[in-house]
């Protein structure tokens, strides 16, 4: 039998021992042949002694007055210790049968005390309770007849009986003591109600049937124990107890002549044996358990030392891995910065169609490689437990808009409709990590678009719960794509696993994206679920918790009240109508053909404030499309035109809408903020139509804003300096460059700059040290310094902030993030400069 180091907790239910299988406690194990032989030996010795003493049972011996108090004191002590040890086992194993034995020993201990107090001549001539010989004899009968009944109840309770409630435990234990007290009162104060079995220390005729009944109860308990098929060690020693009680009753109450004869003394010795055998086994078991606990403690200490050593080795390995990944990320991002940055800049120039096609594909491949690298780094962070979320205010619709801008064109090319559904009660402003939320949504939406050949992809957001400063939202991405069977779903969120073996060959990917999504969602306090059927599409949902900003949302500007939606009947028109009505507008929707007929009949309402219509690649150039629409409008004041399109730029051909026409262009998928901002632009618009939002930053507008400013690029890699300088020139900024930290210090000390782009890892002086020295220069305390690094870890950013840097730009440079950083950190030049 093995005793492991796992602690045994109160309330733990241990399974019954199988054949030959240890259960952790000796008394609860099935008895082995050796234990059977031990018990049989004790039984044979006991029976041999009984047979030898039986002919001499009535032989009178010298009276020993101290025998009874010593004997019964030993009985009480052993019964209470046995009950305590059995109760300890019950608290661990929670078996009702063990609690029944505890009650049995409490019962006998209580009656033993009463028997000692009532014994004539012990404390008083007729006993302390005044019971006399009659009461003492009945206490003996109730004592020796009650214990076998408890044993029979023990046998009747299966070891598999469920645990008792605390109330039932207390009721059984207190009830056994209360029963003993009631019987004591009956045998002493109420002995007149019982048949007389003693008369002047002599047996009456009623004694024989009474003592025979008590003896038969012990025999019945013995037979019940012997009939058990799978006897435990405890069962065997209870057999010894019941046998000893049979010999005790026979010698001290059936075949003897009275007090202080051989039967009197021998019977009490058998009573001591009956009390001692279970106690001795319990004490032996506790000694073994303590020894095994000591062994387990020593083993646990050794194991703890081994685990500490293994932990230290694992942490050293993690640190080495993190260092390797950071180094590799830097080494990979440096050439990628050149590849992505230079191809982006070349794509802004005039190119031949074939050149543009080749460069566009090279640029897309570089970005795919960057996404792969980011996935690997994110997964490494998550595995190391170092991924943390930011808590910054952001607008939910801006995050969704970024997702739409990324996948709208791809979905449109594939003939798939990408649409959003944000419940009206979802707050527009949240506090959380917008970048990580977009990472999850981008991954789920990208997969949905990738595996959907027809139909639609729906990104829906709904409110689960809202408190004073926190909301819980549910995001779901539903597609009508190829779907998955249960086997594919079971491994979808595992790292480096994809739905089917041919997925990587057909669609690419590493299988890391969804594993990272699951970890990010867990960090957001939610969980991700999947529902899919082969050939019917997939729905991936996740919940996430966000904070709410302390300041209230800005009041909305008033919007037009009456809108005409010109679109063919269908779900798209219905969704647009519901969104407009949610903005408290009166909406009428009709097809373009219906409007043409109404105009021909002169039945056109001249009081619409706005006309909303869709425009696609099949409708021709936008100005010509608007020209056709003008023919359907009556003369007089013209309503504003809201043009919805999934195309990147409806005005790409350079043509302008007709003069006098107010036009606002809105990119699909439609979001409530896009719609509201377009409507507000229409209100404030005079005659110049609004331009559609571009995919990238408007460097021409940025150049007008930053004209006359100057930046310093500090990087030991000349290609990186060239890329950053090219972006600065496109933004209208003049630039200088430095290849070392010392050179940067010299330039900053003697020349004026409005911005410093600082690389972190340089051979002679790192960017952190150079920044600290720049901050120590007089007049350079407020100079904006932006970190340029291929390492995007949070720890490094903490070091950057501590050194005095204002913001961080990751390599490869993202043009949109670069433009936003310049617009935020570069101060406008003074007129005198």
The domain tally reads 5
Query: If strands are numbered along the chain, what order do they take across the biggest sheet?
Result: 4-6-7-9-8
Structural class: alpha/beta
Question: So how many helices?
Answer: 24
Number of strands: 19
The CATH architecture of the largest domain would be Up-down Bundle
CATH topology of the largest domain: Rhopdopsin 7-helix transmembrane proteins
Radius of gyration (CA) equals: 46 Å
Poorly predicted ranges: 1-24, 495-501, 503-510, 651-656, 686-695
Q: Which percent range describes the beta-strand content? A: 5-15%
What share of the residues lie within helices? 40-55%
Q: Give the termini distance in whole angstroms.
A: 90 Å
- What would CATH call the class of the largest domain? Mainly Alpha
Morphology: elongated
Mean pLDDT: 76
Report on the structure:
- By secondary structure, the chain is α/β, with parallel strands linked by helices.
- It folds into five domains: 33-298, Up-down Bundle (Rhopdopsin 7-helix transmembrane proteins); 317-378; 392-547, 2-Layer Sandwich (Heat Shock Protein 90), CATH 3.30.565.10; 562-684, Rossmann fold; 699-825, Response regulator (Rossmann fold), CATH 3.40.50.2300.
- It is 52% helix and 13% strand.
- The chain contains 24 helices and 19 strands.
- The strands form five sheets. Strands 4-6-7-9-8 form a five-stranded mixed sheet. Strands 11-10-12-13-14 form a five-stranded parallel sheet. Strands 16-15-17-18-19 form a five-stranded parallel sheet, with helices on both faces.
- Helix 3 (96-118) packs antiparallel against helix 4 (132-156) and helix 11 packs antiparallel against helix 14.
- The two termini are 90 Å apart.
